[in-house]
Amino acid sequence: SYVLTQPPSVSVAPGKTAKISCAGSNIGGRNVHWYQQIPGQAPVLVIYDDSVRPSGIPDRFSTSNSVKTATLTISRVEVGDEADYYCQVSDTVSGSDQFVVFGGGTRLTVL
Amino acid sequence: QVQMVQSEAEVKKPGASVTVSCKASGFTLTSYGVSWVRQAPGQGLEWMGGITFYNGKSKYAQKLQDRVTLTTDTSTSTAYMELRSLISDDTATYYCARVFSDSSGWHFDLWGRGTLVTVSS
Questions:
Q1: Mean pLDDT, range A43-69, rounded to an integer
Q2: Per the CB < 8 Å rule, is B111 touching A102?
Q3: Cα separation of B83 and B65, whole Å?
């Protein structure tokens, strides 16, 4: 089954830029979605279809993709950005045992 | 208000079944789909399965497909997730999420607040 690999943790100072990676085989050929989960709350979609921000998500959130890695970039990090971030793709290969795949999640700590 | 309202927390014994409900409010559920994602304490997100209404198809995670049944009552815009033969590892928060589906797959643009299911003897 398809696997997405994220670093367990990323730390950044307020006002700086955080980068969270999501690695997978030929991930550049898939639509990648990103979710933010503040501790104790439900996940929230922050990026879909590689680079689209839903209404209400600030433009401090952006992405970049290569063949093997998708990266979520949070600019001018705020204390309120401290959360777990998950990448997600769909494994549309016929016979896949897991149609929706999440990365293991990255805890963003704002120092 | 556009939201997905889930049922309250449950405590179940091993071997029992649990049904979690999720009612769509402020939008037409059949215009989208609904999926279920669970999260064990301190762990990541695990997709369980989902239904899209435009084609009436459901998909399940192979790991759970023998124990999970997803249903919907379109008359009340309510989705249900039944999990059978519960074990302690099923202790988790169960989320329903609205599915946006296209040719590249699914993503989830609206989530319920979650339902904690505790399996304990």
A1: 96
A2: no
A3: 10
